[in-house]
């Protein structure tokens, strides 16, 4: 099994949820996060003072899937979230050793 973490633009979350739902990927965890990659500082003014903004609002989406679903999910994320501009985000993929459903004690694929 794999854990796919995608850091995306907040405005792409609803579209991504719809695409994953169509693929019957129902389980996901979503976090509001701040971060930066290649994006440069943006100068803004707050109460007349110049402020350098170097962390930007992002959304982190986590999905656990079977190995054979990994490429389909990654492709869906890339196609849905890509604008072609710096700041589109990143995808990280990790191996998952074990999953246990707390309510029923099911393990592995049955717990997905």
Please provide a written account of the structure:
The protein has 112 residues and is of the alpha+beta class. A hairpin with a 2-residue loop joins strand 3 and strand 4 (49-53). Helix 1 packs antiparallel against helix 2. The chain is built from 2 helices and 6 strands. The protein is elongated and about 60 Å long. It has a single domain, classed as 2-Layer Sandwich (Alpha-Beta Plaits), CATH 3.30.70. The mean pLDDT is 91. 20% of the residues lie in helices and 37% in strands. The termini are close together.
Strand and helix layout:
Layout lengths: L1 E7 L4 H10 L6 E7 L6 E5 L2 E5 L2 E10 L4 H12 L7 E7 L17
The ordered string of helix (H) and strand (E) elements is EHEEEEHE
Please write the CATH class name. Answer: Alpha Beta
Level of helix content? 10-25%
Any idea what the radius of gyration is? Answer: 17 Å
Give the strand order, joined by hyphens, for the main sheet.
2-5-1-6
Number of helical runs? 2
The quaternary organization reads as single chain
* Gross CATH architecture: 2-Layer Sandwich
Low-confidence stretches: none
As for the CATH topology, it is: Alpha-Beta Plaits
Mass-distribution shape: elongated
User: How many domains comprise the coordinates?
Assistant: 1
Q: How many β-strand runs? A: 6
Beta strand %: 35-45%
Please identify the structural class as seen in this structure: alpha+beta
TL;DR?
The chain is an alpha+beta fold. Helices cover 20% and strands 37% of the residues. It is built from 2 helices and 6 strands; from the N terminus they run E-H-E-E-E-E-H-E.
């Amino acid at each position: 099994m794999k854990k796919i973490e995608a850091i995306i633009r907040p405005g792409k979350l609803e579209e991504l949820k719809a695409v994953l739902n169509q693929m019957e990927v129902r389980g996901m965890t979503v976090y509001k996060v701040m971060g930066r990659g290649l994006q440069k500082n943006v100068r803004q003014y707050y109460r007349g003072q110049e402020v350098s903004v170097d962390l930007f609002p992002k959304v982190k989406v986590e999905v656990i899937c079977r190995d054979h679903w990994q490429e389909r999910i990654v492709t869906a994320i890339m196609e849905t979230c890509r604008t072609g501009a710096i700041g589109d985000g990143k995808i990280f993929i990790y191996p998952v050793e074990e999953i246990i459903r707390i309510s029923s004690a099911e393990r592995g694929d049955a717990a997905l």
